Amino acid sequence: xxxxxxxxxxxxxxxxxxxxxxxxxxxxxxxxxxxxxxxxxxxxxxxxxxxxxxxxxxxxxxxxxxxxxxxxxxxxxxxxxxxxxxxxxxxxxxxxxxxxxxxxxxxxxxxxxxxxxxxxxxxxxxxxxxxxxxxxxxxxxxxxxxxxxxxxxxxxxxxxxxxxxxxxxxxxxxxxxxxxxxxxxxxxxxxxxxxxxxxxxxxxxxxxxxxxxxxxxxxxxxxxxxxxxxxxxxxxxxxxxxxxxxxxxxxxxxxxxxxxxxxxxxxxxxxxxxxxxxxxxxxxxxxxxxxxxxxxxxxxxxxxxxxxxxxxxxxxxxxxxxxxxxxxxxxxxxxxxxxxxxxxxxxxxxxxxxxxxxxxxxxxxxxxxxxxxxxxxxxxxxxxxxxxxxxxxxxxxxxxxxxxxxxxxxxxxxxxxxxxxxxxxxxxxxxxxxxxxxxxxxxxxxxxxxxxxxxxxxxxxxxxxx
Length: 466
Fold this sequence. Notes:
By secondary structure, the protein is of the alpha+beta class. It is built from 17 helices and 18 strands. Helices cover 39% and strands 21% of the residues. The chain has a five-stranded mixed beta sheet.
C-alpha cells in the first residue's frame, strides 16, 4: 500500500468534469470519460428496466428484424402521385418528417409548398400561393402516412411523378419523388421559373423515359444494386455516385429499345449522368420498403422511421405502429460552402434519415471513406461511426457488406432500448439547407437523433408490456 501512495496519481474520471478539474489542479492526471447514467430520468429508467432482456420484446425484435432482412424491394415503375399513392386527395401536399401545420413549417418547406402550388396551377402568383397555403384548403400530411419518403422538404403534390417500389415478398409498395439534381431546387424551397420548368421537364420527359425503360426490364432488384454501390464507395445517403451511374447503366439499353424518342432518352441520360444524387430517392424508397416489412410487430422496440421536418425530429417504432415520438431538431454540424456558416443553417430536414434507419447512410460510412471530405472528419471518423452503431442495433445486414471492415454487414435494426441504455443516439449524415427558402444547400455534416424521442418511445412501449 505504501508503494501505491508513492506513485503518481492517475485517475479515470467518469461523468462530471469537476472532479477531474480538482485532481489536475493538484498535479494529478485524470483521463476524462464522457459517461452518463442510462436513461434520461426515472420514468425512462423504469421503462428500460421493464424492457431490458424481456423475452417478449426480444422475440418481437427478432421477428421485426427478420422481416426487414427478408424484404426484397424491386423498382417496378413510375406513377403519378395523385393516381398512385393510396388515399392521396386532389388537394393533398405531402412533406418530410412528422406532422406539422403550415404556420409552424420551416422556411424551406414553405417555399417548396409554394412551388408545388404553382406547379399544380392552384395559384398563379407567390402571394396567391401563400394565401392558399394559409387558408385551410390544402391538406398537409407527412409522406410517411402514404408509405412515401422525400428528401429535405420532401414535397409531393398530386401531379408529381413518383418511383414505385414493390416488396417482392409481401407485395406492399413504397414511393418517393424523383431527384431534381443540385443547386436551386424545390426540395430546398426554391420555386423560381427555372425550378418549375425543370420539374415540368421531369414530369413530361424524364419520368416517361424511365417508366418505359422499366417496362422493358421488368423491374430492377434494388438490394443488389445498393450493395454493389457500397462496394464502390457509396454509403447510400449523401454519396450516391456509384448507385446513380449503375442505375443509368441498368436502364439505358431498355430506354433506347423503348418507343421513347432518341432525343428524350439522350436528355434523360445526360440529366441522370450529371446528377450524383439521382439514386438517393430510389434508395430511400427501398429503405422504406424494408422497414415497412418490419413494422407493426407487437412489443418490438425496433425503429422503423426517423424523419425531420425542419422543426421537429420524429421517431416511430415497430411495436407502436403509426405513433410519432418527437423532439426539437437542431442544425447539423459539418462543412459549409464558402460564404456560409452554422448561423445560416436551417434545422435538420428531410425523410432521408430513412437510410440510417435501414442501416446504411451514416451507419455505413465505413464503406465510403470519401464521404468525410463532404461531411467533415477523417476516414477514422467514418469507421468509428459505423462501429459505434453496433451498440444500438439488433444485428447486421448481410446484404450490405463493408469492404474496409472485412466485409461484415452494416449494423442495422435500431433498438430504442439500446439507444437509451447506452446513451448513444443514432448517427445521421445529412445535407444542410439554408434557413431561408430558395437559397439551397449550404453544406453537409453529421448529426444525431435526439435522445428525447427514444426515451419517449421506450416509456410508451413499456406501458404496453405486461
